């Protein structure tokens, strides 16, 4: 058998520990498939004495992860520290500069510096593999880069954050609060170190920017992603969605439109009978629309140690087998800048929840503002508790009451202009809730 691939692992959190365990457990299988053993020769993490449930016997410990990357006992570095800058970036650059291949799960790093790091890897003849950076255990990076190499992709969309899908699913099915669900997601190891990355939509945006580059041959441009998180979603929104035949999911969507490439992350109402609406809990799903293949959807575990370790193993196997491909599908020098489609030009249906001062003329005033922007309403639902009706039988009190509007397809510009006018008219007591609807 050929020389072993000597691996240095930087970061021994949930994923790092699962990876070291899996490399030990599956060592014979990997050696026979790759034609050479894959062995961990070095590790680095913050706390040497923490019990991680894995054996580190015979593995060199480095307090300095950059020194690990430079060690002559390490052929290939796995970066599992996270963070867009700082030590993670220094480790990856140190390894690539020496021509050592790198495997990373670090979507924040790739979102910000991915194009430059790929260029460095290519210049040094090293491989930079990042299957684990998007959708945990789902092999979407290789699917786009390799399996669909002969396709023209027009759209990539999906549920890319396990924590958000877990929270929305439990809020909907069990009527729990956002805070309880988030605490459970953290306990289970799904959430990022700073969970605002998850619930604010930024983690999804990082992943989407990587998929966009792979799908459209563009430089990674995370600044071009329009981002909204799930923190504003209320139990009432989930109930209303259910009554109207939808589920609310945090979707990332990258699409080639007539105005350019649209990249957007926001809570989205999807019809309940769509496959993506059935995806619950920490599970992720990614759909790709491409020619000639048509539409395909990959569903699987999007977070957690074992699922993410599975993707890292696949990247390591490629390195052990000496498989070289341009990490972003085309050489870095051939990536285009990509035309950003402005979000104001986005078109689709909208769910609008208004907290309306309940008095004569309010509904008519709101409808007028919508009509002025040529927005056609598909439905209007006003929810008023029986007790309030008894207290104000003539409906003149001006007490705030939820009103939900569903629009036919319109533009983001028109919706924003109509809602600005509604707010200026003084009909609503709180800022409006806006959720985009996907109808296909
Ligand atoms: N925090 C991420 C998630 C982990 O919840 O999906 C996987 O990237």
Helical fraction equals 25-40%
Main CATH class of the largest domain: Alpha Beta
Mean pLDDT: 94
Low-pLDDT parts are none
Number of helices: 15
- The coarse overall form would be elongated
Kindly identify the CATH topology of the largest domain.
Answer: Dihydrodipicolinate Reductase, domain 2
Number of domains: 3
How many β-strand runs? 17
CATH superfamily of the largest domain: Dihydrodipicolinate Reductase, domain 2
CATH architecture of the largest domain: 2-Layer Sandwich
Terminal-residue CA separation: 52 Å
Give the tags.
binds L-homoserine, Alpha-Beta Plaits, six-stranded parallel beta sheet, Dihydrodipicolinate Reductase, domain 2, 3 domains, eleven-stranded mixed beta sheet, 440 residues
What does this structure look like?
- β9 (246-257) and β10 (260-271) form a beta hairpin.
- The model has no long low-confidence stretch (mean pLDDT 94).
- The protein is α/β, with parallel strands linked by helices and 440 residues long.
- The protein has three domains: 5-133, Rossmann fold; 144-301, Dihydrodipicolinate Reductase, domain 2 (2-Layer Sandwich); 346-437, Alpha-Beta Plaits, CATH 3.30.70.
- It is elongated.
- The protein has 15 helices and 17 strands.
- Strands 7, 8, 9, 10, 11, 12, 13, 14, 15, 16 and 17 form an eleven-stranded mixed β-sheet that branches. Strands 3-2-1-4-5-6 form a six-stranded parallel β-sheet, sandwiched between helices.
- The N and C termini lie far apart (52 Å).
- The site of L-homoserine has 11 residues, from α7.
